[in-house]
Design a protein that fits this description.
Number of domains: 1
Number of strands: 5
Structural class: alpha+beta
Helix content: 25-40%
Low-confidence stretches: 1-9
CATH topology: Trna Endonuclease, Chain: A, domain 1
Radius of gyration: 16 Å
CATH class: Alpha Beta
Number of helices: 3
Order of helices and strands: HEEEHEEH
Length: 127
């Protein structure tokens, strides 16, 4: 067993790492279902790409990278930085961190971008 996973007593041998990963996978699937229900039928979870990660969700068009986070400790700076690196890897215009809100459904997740990106999106929308 690796140093990053710890067996929990009484849980059938499931490791902390696997439980955390399962929560992340479930959240990503919920985000995909939300996009699909709101006009993005091609949204899907992206296969892992190692050190050239291009985000967690694909099928939203080439301009978007979505990085999903369902973690106990919310660290916006690292989430936004990760989404921006993945945006660059994918050659996309916008990288968005979608962060699960504890006790809320997926529709209430936070979408986090730097202010400069928000202004770019606003200018594009307003034409």
């Amino acid at each position: 067993m690796s140093e990053t996973s710890t067996r929990l007593p009484g849980n059938g041998g499931t490791s902390v790492t696997n439980r955390s990963k399962q929560k992340g996978t479930t959240f990503e699937s919920d985000v995909v279902a939300f996009f699909q229900a709101h006009g993005y039928p091609h949204a899907e979870r992206r296969a892992l790409a190692g050190n050239v990660d291009k985000g967690d969700i694909t099928g939203l068009g080439p301009r978007w990278v979505i990085e999903c986070k369902a973690v106990r400790e919310i660290t916006l700076a690292s989430f936004v930085d990760e989404a921006d690196v993945e945006r660059g890897n994918a050659g996309a215009d916008y990288g968005v961190a979608v962060v699960k809100r504890r006790g809320k459904n997926v529709a209430e997740a936070y979408c986090v971008v730097p202010l400069r990106v928000m202004v770019e999106m606003m200018k594009e929308i307003e034409g």
